[in-house]
Amino acid sequence: MAMSSLNARRLVLRNDLAELERLAAWIESWSQHSLSPDLSFAVQLCLEEAVANVIMHCAADDDRVEIAVELQRKGDTLVACVEDSGPAFDPTQVPPPPLAPSLEEVNVGDLGIHLMRSFANGMYYERKDGRNRQTLWFVEPQPAGHPPARSTHCGR
């Protein structure tokens, strides 16, 4: 699927779980014409999880926390950034969840960051100017013989 050159969009959210509906609609409208269904699903899952983590864990007691989501196309790569003004939290340092002995013993609530690692092609974190900045990148599958372009940071 051919992708356009640089095409960035930014959405600012409140720290309220109801904002996940607005995020989902924004991602869908942004991606419906330029992403494959598989990539669109991966982006949606990862961004909803990242924003939900901020809302539930970082911003629970502070209504003034701002969450900004940015999407940017760079060739065949989609770069997604989630930035917030909550307390420092580096999701790249969270260890993988332990394997449960059985399906009945799986703790579903502890799989979000693991799912993000599984569905994104890469994940990067930095704390800058009192803000968390999590960058995820996704590469659209290419036909054989066409290597994907790769970038790990959002442009500003």
- Percent helix among the residues? 25-40%
- Strand order across the largest sheet: 1-2-3-5-4
- Whole-number total of structural domains: 1
- Give the distance, in angstroms, between the N- and C-terminal Cα atoms: 26 Å
Q: Give the CATH architecture.
A: 2-Layer Sandwich
Low-confidence stretches: 1-6
Give the averaged pLDDT, no decimals.
82
Question: Strand portion, in percent?
Answer: 25-35%
Name of the CATH superfamily: Histidine kinase-like ATPase, C-terminal domain
Q: Secondary-structure element order, as H and E?
A: EHHEEHEE
CATH class category:
Alpha Beta
What's the SSE blueprint?
Layout: E1 7-13, H1 19-31, H2 37-58, E2 67-74, E3 77-84, H3 112-119, E4 122-128, E5 131-139
Antiparallel strand pairs: 1-2, 2-3, 3-5, 4-5
Helix pairs in contact: 1-2, 2-3
Written overview of the protein:
The protein has 156 residues and is an alpha+beta fold. The chain has a single domain (7-139), classed as Histidine kinase-like ATPase, C-terminal domain (Heat Shock Protein 90), CATH 3.30.565. It contains three helices and five strands, in the order βααββαββ. The protein has helices at residues 19-31, 37-58, 112-119; strands spanning 7-13, 67-74, 77-84, 122-128, 131-139. A five-stranded antiparallel beta sheet has the order 1-2-3-5-4, covered by helices on one side. A hairpin with a 2-residue loop joins strand 4 and strand 5 (131-139). The radius of gyration is 16 Å and the shape is globular.
